[in-house]
Amino acid sequence: MSRDKCKECPWREENNNTHSIKFRTYVDKMKTIGKDNHSCHMINRDIWGGNSEINEKNVCIGSKQRREK
């Protein structure tokens, strides 16, 4: 399954607003406690996978592409 980053994705280069920058920093902090993947906020409200599995269908593509670099 192939999809692009959503328009509001905080990982898009053009989204350098305050919210996006703070979210990126928050994700980096979550990695320190073992939360490597998160789901796309446009697909699933359970971003950190507390109630549902994070898989290829709902993973945040922007974050995934950043990790693969």
Low-confidence stretches: none
Q: Name the overall outline.
A: globular
Distance from first to last alpha carbon: 19 Å
Care to count the β-strands?
0
Helices, by number, come to 2
Largest sheet: none
Mean pLDDT over the residues: 88
Specify the helix fraction band.
Answer: 25-40%
Q: Proportion of β residues? A: under 5%
Question: What order do the helices and strands follow?
Answer: HH
Task: Decide which structural class fits the backbone.
Answer: mainly alpha
Number of domains: 1
Describe this structure in words.
The structure is a single chain. This protein is mainly α and 69 residues long. The chain has one domain. Helix content is 32%, strand content 0%. The protein has two helices and no strands. The longest helix is centred in the middle third of the chain and has 14 residues. The model has no long low-confidence stretch (mean pLDDT 88).
Q: What's the structural blueprint in terms of helices and strands?
A:
Layout: H1 18-31, H2 61-68
For this entry, give a set of tags.
mainly alpha, globular, 69 residues
